[in-house]
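Researcher: I'm preparing a figure for a lab meeting and need a structural model of a single chain. I don't have an experimental structure, so a prediction will have to do for now. The sequence is pasted below. Please return the structure as tokens so I can convert it later.
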Amino acid sequence: MNAQGLPVDAPAPLLGFGQVRHTRLRPRHHAFSYPTFFLMLPMRSLAAQPGALPVNRRGAISFHDADHGDGRGPQQGGALAWLDELLHSEGVDDAAGQVWLHCYPRVLGYTFKPVSFWYCHRDDGTLRAIVVEVNNTFGERHCYLLDHPRYGVELQARKVFHVSPFCQVSGGYRFRFMRTQGASAADAAPRSANAPAPMGRTVVRIDYDDDSGPLLQTSVSGTLYPLTAQTLRQASWGYPAMTLALIVRIHWHALRLWLKRVRFHSKPAAPASIVTR
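Model: Understood. Here is the structure written out token by token.
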């Protein structure tokens, strides 16, 4: 274990089961919560230790490098090479330790990743930076680089990228990240004899404030388990069409906001740079 209690010696991939929550505070209150699952992948050791996860090949649930960054495949170093280049271009030269990627997988060959989180560590295992990789439904991508983050401590970034037509590109985000190891009291329910033991929990909160104050409160949280054939089957059976459901829900809630007469904003041009510090 490192100074923050995270594994550093060739850790294995993890699968998270949890919830996505979203609340809009004004001008009309609008809230929802959905169960979900996600990947938590140790990118520097993934190629050597993918476990049961299909990597850059077909599978009911799979991971593909081309779904991140600039879309490069494994022959060009994959998404990890893109990340290292981005960090170096921003002067972050001491994040050569493990990189954990929290993201949605491809499900039945399809994916949409509204947001992914790259946790970048130093050689000694301490957290050096977090890259928040955001995609919108217009096929655009932008990254927010959070420098010198700490778990449990709020981080801020100015909003520069269009995501929802019901929000202006103004104001800023407030981020809070939490990661725990081992089973918590919430995970202590009886399990079958062959059920995998939980490996901890992760929570990400992203609150958005526009020029008038707090507007959106969102979070994704989940309990982490070893990524095995068993947990992959559990995800496949429990969420058989997660990507399609995600896209349908985005448009369904957009329709509901429109019916509530929340103001619609036209999409501005994308930022000139792919990264904002």
